């Protein structure tokens, strides 16, 4: 729907926030003893968390009706600043423990920001927003002036889910109601049409239907098992990334999945990332190990294994080893959020004067990949959050230098980019490729990251031209990111209809009956003579022609070749291309040429 203007963005956020309050008012009207959590604006809508109540999706229609009834009363949204004592008394009397907790935490945050030793309850004030005289909530504001401004034909309550209070699994589970809201019913209709299409393309559903991957409770959540078909596609993605790596001088290495704790202490991962790492302990030595979440610390050890000179640089290493991250169960999502995955990872150790050339090399490879997969993208310059510097390794001088270099590199290539604070890696700034899929959804895939910190932490050196020890710079990069995550994204982008070079089964030959199996086999052999690596399946099972064709359509096979009496007599074939229908009768050599041309266009 395009990027909204700033004023429009504020307007829609006010609308969505107001709907969240009206939702809370509607739930309270039906369930007076409900305990209220929070109700923020989110992308495309809002949600509200509720405790001490049982709600399901069958209740959403009635709640929508109640929300419209409340909004039609033309209630003003008004805000007051109450002393903390008054607000606490109000919510305590209403039996709202979550609001009391928020007030306490707001006071703590204010004390920290103002660096005061004490703030009295009378001095400290909190925002209370009233929806008419019917409903009052703890809130900083951001609403329409009156409920008459709410577009009642442009919102929906969509689903009910469980959510831990404040995202902490040790806290009570609340009931979360999600809603969507837009400024017009046309925008709502467009969004719902996009979501319906997204549901059709859901990689979790298509992955099962196409027989690409499975998950097992016995194996564990977030740990995918790839079938032969799925493993083939995944290997194609990896092999293409390996090819691009080799073209720009990277050498493939292999590193172990588990590593001693000390490695990650030095790298900084233990300090900044340990909550997301799997812990392992040796039964014999009692040493602590971690499953690795990234390859970079291991690559520093390959670098340091022998003395290096300025003449040896750049040293380029690529690694496709499995990585492991202890993602929260509620955040796992098919292939796009996993606990075990690989990356088409590269690390280059180089001199500072080589940064620009290496940046160009890697970016050229990334651009080839985006073209290969038919993806459009924009560039994000991911920077440090200047208000939370403690989240990152290294000091101000290093960060200012690395961020300046990264920005200059993009400008020299005349690449348009958008800067984004708080998106950098904890060791350095990044250039991220933000891909738009066929539904205009954005995915962060490729990345080039500039790191002055990790080489220094590992005391990496090389002998400079003057014989003095110098510290190398490290460039981290990924061409498509995680191949597993990319696979999931591609399923949705293509709607399961993979291009010919990626399809595990490229051609099905379907004889009309058993009488034509011999001719079907002849066609297969002729095609393979002209296109030797073509992946062909001869469907000679004792099933009806209609069933085989339907199966081919369901499995989204790129080409179906039907052969019968007419084709045998004329020594021709009648191919169908998925999504395009019949291509007409043609000679086998003509079809082979067409298939070869389609593959050559992708350099396969």
CA distance, first residue to last residue: 36 Å
Helical content stands at: 25-40%
Range of strand content: 15-25%
Count every beta strand, where a strand is a DSSP E run of 2 or more residues. Answer: 31
CATH class of the largest domain: Alpha Beta
Low-confidence stretches: 1-7, 113-117
CATH topology of the largest domain: BirA Bifunctional Protein, domain 2
Round the mean pLDDT to the nearest integer and report it. 91
Describe this structure in a few short sentences.
This protein has 604 residues and is α+β, with helices and mostly antiparallel strands.
Q: In words, what does this structure look like?
A:
The protein is of the alpha+beta class and 604 residues long. It folds into 3 domains: 6-201, Threonyl-trna Synthetase, Chain A, domain 2 (Threonyl-tRNA Synthetase, Chain A, domain 2, 2-Layer Sandwich), CATH 3.30.980.10; 209-369 and 431-494, BirA Bifunctional Protein, domain 2, CATH 3.30.930; 507-600, Rossmann fold. Helix content is 37%, strand content 24%. It has an 8-stranded mixed β-sheet with strand order 11-15-18-25-22-21-19-20, sandwiched between helices. Strands 26, 27, 28, 29, 30 and 31 form a 6-stranded mixed β-sheet that branches. The longest helix is centred in the first third of the chain and has 25 residues, at 6-30. It is globular.
């Amino acid at each position: 729907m395009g990027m909204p203007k700033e004023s429009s963005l504020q307007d829609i956020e006010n609308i969505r926030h107001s709907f969240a309050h009206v939702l809370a008012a509607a739930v309270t009207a039906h369930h007076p003893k409900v305990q209220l959590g929070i109700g923020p604006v989110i992308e495309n809508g809002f949600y509200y968390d509720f405790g001490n109540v049982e709600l399901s999706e069958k209740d959403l229609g009635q709640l929508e009706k109640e929300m419209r009834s409340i909004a039609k009363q033309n209630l003003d949204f008004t805000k007051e600043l109450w002393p903390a004592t008054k607000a606490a008394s109000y919510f305590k009397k209403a039996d709202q423990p979550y609001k009391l907790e928020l007030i306490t935490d707001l006071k703590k945050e204010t004390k920290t920001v103002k660096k005061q030793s004490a703030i009295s309850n009378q001095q400290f004030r909190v925002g209370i927003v009233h929806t008419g005289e019917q409903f009052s909530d703890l809130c900083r504001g951001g609403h329409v002036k009156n409920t008459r401004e709410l577009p009642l034909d442009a919102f929906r309550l969509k689903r009910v889910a469980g959510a831990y209070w404040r995202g902490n699994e040790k806290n009570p589970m609340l009931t979360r109601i999600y809603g969507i809201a837009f400024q017009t019913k046309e925008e709502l209709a467009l969004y719902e049409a996009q979501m319906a299409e997204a549901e059709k393309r859901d990689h979790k559903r298509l992955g099962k239907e196409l027989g690409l991957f499975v998950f097992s409770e016995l194996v564990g959540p977030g740990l995918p098992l790839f079938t032969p078909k799925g493993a083939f596609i995944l290997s194609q993605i990896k092999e293409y990334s390996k090819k691009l790596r080799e073209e720009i001088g990277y050498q493939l290495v292999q590193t172990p999945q588990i590593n001693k704790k000390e490695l990650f202490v030095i790298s900084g991962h233990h300090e900044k990332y340990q909550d997301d790492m799997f812990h392992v302990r040796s039964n014999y030595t009692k040493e602590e190990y971690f499953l690795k979440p990234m390859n970079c610390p291991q690559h520093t050890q390959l670098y340091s294994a022998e003395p290096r000179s300025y003449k040896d640089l750049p040293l380029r290493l690529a690694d496709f080893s499995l990585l492991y991250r202890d993602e929260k169960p509620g955040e796992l999502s098919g292939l796009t959020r996993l606990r075990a995955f690989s990356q088409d990872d590269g690390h280059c150790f180089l001199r500072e004067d080589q940064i620009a050339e290496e940046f160009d090399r890697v970016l050229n490879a990334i651009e080839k990949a985006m073209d290969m997969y038919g993806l459009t993208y924009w560039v994000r310059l991911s920077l440090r959050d200047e208000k939370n510097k403690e989240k990152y390794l290294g000091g101000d001088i290093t960060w200012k230098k690395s961020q300046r270099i990264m920005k200059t590199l993009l400008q020299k290539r005349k690449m348009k980019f958008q800067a984004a604070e708080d998106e950098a890696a904890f060791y350095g700034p990044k250039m991220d490729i933000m891909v738009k899929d066929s539904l205009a959804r954005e995915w962060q895939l490729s990345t080039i990251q500039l790191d002055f910190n990790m080489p220094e932490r590992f005391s990496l050196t090389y002998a400079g031209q003057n014989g003095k020890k110098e510290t190398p710079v490290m460039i981290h990069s990924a061409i498509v990111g995680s191949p597993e995550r990319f696979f999931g994204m591609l399923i949705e982008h293509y709607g399961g209809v993979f291009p010919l070079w990626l399809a595990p089964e490229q051609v099905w030959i379907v004889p009309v009956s058993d009488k034509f199996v011999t001719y079907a086999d002849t066609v297969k052999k002729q095609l393979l003579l002209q296109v030797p690596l073509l992946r062909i399946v001869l469907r000679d099972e004792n099933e009806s022609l209609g069933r085989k064709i339907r199966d081919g359509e369901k499995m989204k096979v790129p080409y179906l070749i039907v052969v019968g009496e007419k084709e045998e007599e004329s020594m021709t074939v009648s191919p169908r291309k998925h999504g395009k229908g019949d291509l007409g009768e043609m000679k086998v050599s003509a079809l082979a040429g067409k298939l070869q041309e389609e593959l050559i266009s992708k350099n396969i």
